[in-house]
Amino acid sequence: MVSVENPLIMNIIRGLIGVVAVILFLSLNVLFLTWLERKVIARIHVRYGPNRAGPYGLLQPIADMIKLLTKEDIVPEKADKLVYNLAPMAAFLFALMPAAAVGIGSGLIAADIGVGVLYIAAVSSLSTLAILMAAWGSNNKYSLLGGMRTAAQSLSYEIPLVLSMIGIVAIVGSLSTQDIVAAQSQAWFGIIPKWFIFYQPLAFIVFFAAVVAEMGRIPFDLPESESELVAGFHTEYSGMKFAMFMFAEYIHFVVGSALVVTLFLGGWHLPIISPLVENLGWIKYIVQAGIFVAKMYVIIFTLMWVRGTLTRTKVDHVLSFGWKGLLPLALANVVITGVVLSI
Q1: Residue 127 falls inside a structural domain
Q2: pLDDT (tens digit per residue) in 22-56
């Protein structure tokens, strides 16, 4: 009989609990966000949004889920069946992977690895592979164009995205997301937070813009531009497979916003409140998670506001902004941070 106290068994159990917790947290947020985004953008456009299924349309995500699960799964006759069918599963898996290294509280993290930032940067880029699989496997010219745009856009913005994190890693001296949040726990005079948005404002601007581009959201939603490409890489998908792409897109939305909070907005720390709950046992973790989620939804609301306000940018302007705008700023921030730390 295998002992439960065996370190390997305990690590497997912790890992399984972490995976279930991450999937549950992301699933609940995705369901809520599909309703919230429609409501927010409707208000910006002076419309009502969902208001039929349940009170205030709150049951609309459930209705959408039932519809997608029961729709016919159509596979194009000339599609590459293997690649076509694997792409949605790959997109869903690759979207989940970065969430493992993002915590919502002290110790409330699925995998507290020492190279958390490096891991997130590495696995986030895999999503492009899933989209290229869908684009090629569909055997559709609009899908292929969407996939090509995704590859070009991802390459253009991943470099400044990673460079914008180097300054923070240099200041903290660690790649762990838990250490990065801990480094932002202090406050000037007990009320002004020492968050990296104040130490690294240039990096924050670059990171925020690059994250929006990596999410593929307006004004950087060229890979699925409806007016030009019908729906881009997922044009030929329906039913459950389309639902997996949509789910993956909203997971990127949540994880990207959580990363902004972790790296630049102090994570689960908040002046005055955090010191008060530090010694309150399990209550501390509830408060920390609440603070983190509240900050995350501020970023999410900002991104919804951007989507409801701005228009889609031309593809050449999107790529030019990444290479000629964000990349020089990111490099300048690395140089400035290095000079300041060496003084």
Answers
A1: yes
A2: 888 888 888 888 889 889 999 888 888 888 888 88
